[in-house]
Amino acid sequence: MRWLKRFIAGGKEKEVIELFKEHINSVKLSCEIFTKAIESGDKGLLTEVCELEKTGDAIRRDIALKLYEGAFLPVMRGTLYKLAETIDEILDTLENTAVDYARLTSELDGDVRELCVKVAILNTKMSVNLMEAFEALGKEADLSDKTIKIRTREREVDAIKREIYKKLVKKEVRSFWEGKILSNFIDGLVNVSDIIEDAADLIQILNVSLR
Q1: Contact at 8 Å (CB) between 178 and 105?
Q2: Do residues 164 and 122 touch, judged by C-beta distance below 8 A?
Q3: pLDDT at 141
Q4: In sequence order, what DSSP letters do the residues of 114-151 get, joined into one string?
Q5: Which domains does the chain have, with CATH numbers?
Q6: 108 versus 84: which is more confidently predicted?
Q7: Would you tell me which of 47, 67, 157, 199 could form a disulfide with 193, CB atoms 3.0–4.6 Å apart?
Q8: Phi, psi of 7 (to 5 degrees)
């Protein structure tokens, strides 16, 4: 990544960059596994989402430690740590959503499942765009293209969310808790895109630091 040349003082910076790539890749893998779980109905896959969340926690701690040890200029460290926290929040949300999905006592209705799969696929595409945006730091045109894609897909998720809720209000549930778990699952699934957009915003802030 060419933008590093101006800011690298030693090996710690390179290590932080590799950790961020690993962190974002964990989000991508988690999104892919989650999509497969909803498509197939195989809830056994969700344990992998939980394992990736644990991996993400470890990566975030490693990034924090290297920033504390002096990686990067002070003006960038706060934003870099906030980015690591936000990426970790994506993984936390995916884990919580996976737990709610595993707790559902009845199968999703066919049309609701189809819409949820669409959201999960969009989340996966946005995770790829997030990696591309991170790698495009310092290249204004490329970064802008990737962040525009993220915002466009986030709006698509918002539109699908409205469709899902229109269908859910007509659905009969057997108990308050069944309805709450289903609502939490949908909220978590659609919130992933919001947090990915937040991460993309932080990457844009970092890009300003590189000017």
Answers
A1: yes
A2: no
A3: 66
A4: HHHHHHHHHHHHHHHHHHHHHHTTT-HHHHHHHHHHHH
A5: 8-209 (1.20.58.220)
A6: 84
A7: 157
A8: -125, -5
